[in-house]
Write a structure and sequence with these properties.
It is built from 1 helix and 5 strands. With 66 residues, it is mainly β.
Length: 66
C-alpha cells in the first residue's frame, strides 16, 4: 500500500503499523514524534496503530544541541 510520508509517497506492507514502519525505515522510536492524518500518536500506541492506504504520516526527529 502507499502512504504519504513527510511529503513523499512510500510503499509499505498491508497491515503495517507505525512501529513496523519505523522499523522498515530503521528509525528508533525513542527520539521521534509521529503524526497520523494530523493527529499526534502516543508512543504507547505505535504497535497497535494500523496504517491504511493513503494515510499521511509525518515523522519528526528530535535533535539535541547546546
Amino acid at each position: 500500500m502507499k502512504i504519504l510520508l513527510n511529503g513523499e509517497f512510500v510503499e509499505t506492507a498491508e497491515g503495517a503499523t507505525i512501529e513496523s514502519l519505523l522499523q522498515q525505515l530503521d528509525i528508533s522510536r525513542e527520539r521521534v514524534a509521529v503524526e497520523l492524518n494530523a493527529d499526534i500518536i502516543p508512543k504507547a500506541h505505535y504497535e497497535k496503530q494500523s496504517l491504511c492506504d493513503g494515510d499521511k504520516i509525518e515523522i519528526v526527529h528530535f535533535v539535541g544541541g547546546g
